[in-house]
Write a structure and sequence with these properties.
Layout (H helix, E strand, L loop, with lengths): L21 H11 L3 E6 L2 E7 H8 L5 H4 L2 H4 L7 E2 L4 H11 L3 E5 L5 E6 H8 L9 E5 L2 E5 L4 E3 L2 H33 L2 H10 L7 H25 L3 H16 L6 H5 L9 H22 L2 H5 L1 H31 L5 H20 L7 H8 L1 H30 L1
Parallel strand pairs: 3-4
Antiparallel strand pairs: 1-2, 4-5, 6-7, 7-8
Helix pairs in contact: 5-6, 7-8, 7-9, 7-17, 8-9, 9-12, 9-14, 10-15, 12-14
């Protein structure tokens, strides 16, 4: 197996600037878990600072941590690694310089990131992972990407994923309407009648009641949508397999069925987390709108402001936990052996392509294409057109039967 180029295994380490304090330099070293950091000016590496150098300064003058700027103590970099350089050459440079981390630049000299000696040795042993792997679940299987190369199902699967999501949402809307209809028929409660009117965008009551109906309708729709998403064959299982495969890759595990199956189904970068954040913000804003539309809310603005602060803190502290809970209970389910196998195939393909592809900085268009979001949007639009045509036929049939 050919060794990967340096650019394929670098880490995107945030560099320092000349005006940064020594305190910031130390904080960034700790945060990014490196012993040295490059100093960059207009995209070019102009030097670096390392722990040994900072120790010499701060042990003699502790106050220098905030007073002295990085530009005043900058030192020459032992070596710069070219992103297209083969791994063997990089390892030789590490051995010659004794450095634990070195900056990586592209052919024009612009800073790309850093490579640590540990990462280089892991890559040499075939254990290194790409800087970041993401993916999606589709009706055809698992899709994975580094943002530059991809593996698993192709663009058709991503388009079908968008179509499936739009279809599930359409079905969820129908289920919600049916639930409200049954509720009104059984109980005769006017609130269910108002919910039906809201679902058909024909409610014309007071603003306070309208906002309350929006909250209830939206909450029920989200719950039904998530329930259907879990029940749809394959989608939730492939979603779990996608997460488990990415977790295995990021943990440096071998992609075998047993290893992948042991990985968690929840992943911190899943789009479900962002969706949960937006949902919480939306519901919080709706509750606030209800309060402000009442006399009590308008006359107790200090209480409303306090409530806003408390809700904001709760959302900030818990949205990822809420997103993880949704992943665990709704958007994923235990993957079958076939679904795990789909994740493994995607993982093996994306790793092979990543390590065998000559490194070039990806363009914005490349990132958009490989992320898969564009294809999903295309699928949503296509299904939206089909459902609009279907709705027209259903409306015609409904009016025909009513008459």
């Amino acid at each position: 197996m050919p060794s990967p180029p340096v650019g394929s295994i670098l880490s995107f380490i945030v560099p320092l600037e000349r005006a940064d304090s020594l305190g910031k330099a130390l904080f960034q070293m700790k945060k990014q878990q490196v012993s040295a950091l490059p100093v960059v000016d207009e995209g070019l590496v102009v030097g670096w600072v390392n722990e040994d150098h900072l120790a010499d300064i701060l042990l003699g003058d502790a106050d220098a941590v905030d007073r002295v700027r990085v530009g005043e103590v900058i030192a020459p970099v032992p070596a710069l690694l070219d992103a297209s350089e083969p791994l063997e050459r990089a390892l030789a440079i590490f051995q010659a310089t004794g450095a634990a981390v070195l900056p990586v630049v592209w052919s024009d000299g612009r800073y790309q990131g850093c490579l640590t000696r540990a990462d280089a040795l892991l890559a040499q042993a075939g254990k290194m992972t790409p800087p970041r792997v993401g993916g999606m679940a589709t009706p055809l299987g698992v899709y994975l990407t580094t943002g530059v190369v991809d593996g698993g199902v192709g663009h058709l699967g991503l388009i079908l994923a968008g179509m499936a999501m739009a279809a599930i949402l359409w079905i969820a809307q129908g289920v919600v309407f049916l639930l409200f209809t049954i509720g009104y028929s059984v109980s005769g409660w006017p609130f269910f009648r108002d919910l039906l009117l809201m679902a058909r965008d024909s409610f014309s009551g007071p603003p306070t009641e309208e906002i309350l109906l929006v909250i209830v309708t939206s909450s029920v729709l989200m719950l039904v949508f998530l329930t259907l998403l879990r029940l749809v064959p394959k989608m939730a299982g492939y979603h779990a397999a996608e997460h488990q495969t990415v977790n295995a890759i990021e943990a440096g595990e071998t992609l075998t069925p047993d290893q992948v199956q042991r990985m968690p189904r929840v992943h911190p970068r899943c789009g479900t987390n962002l969706w949960s954040l937006l949902s919480l913000v939306y519901l919080g804003a709706a509750v606030l709108a209800v309060l402000l539309s009442t006399r009590f809310g308008r006359e107790n603005l200090s209480l409303v402001v306090t409530l806003v602060i408390v809700m904001s803190l709760l959302i900030m502290l818990n949205w990822k936990r809420f997103g993880g809970w949704i992943q665990d209970h709704f958007t994923t389910r235990p993957a079958s052996p076939d679904e795990i196998a789909s994740g493994i195939r995607a993982g093996e393909e994306v790793l092979a392509r990543h390590f065998h592809t000559a490194y070039t900085p990806p363009s914005f268009a490349q990132r958009i294409l490989h992320q898969g979001l564009l294809q999903v949007v295309i699928g949503v639009v296509l299904m939206g057109i089909l459902l609009q045509l279907l709705n027209a036929q259903l409306d015609y049939l409904w009016h025909f039967l009513v008459k």
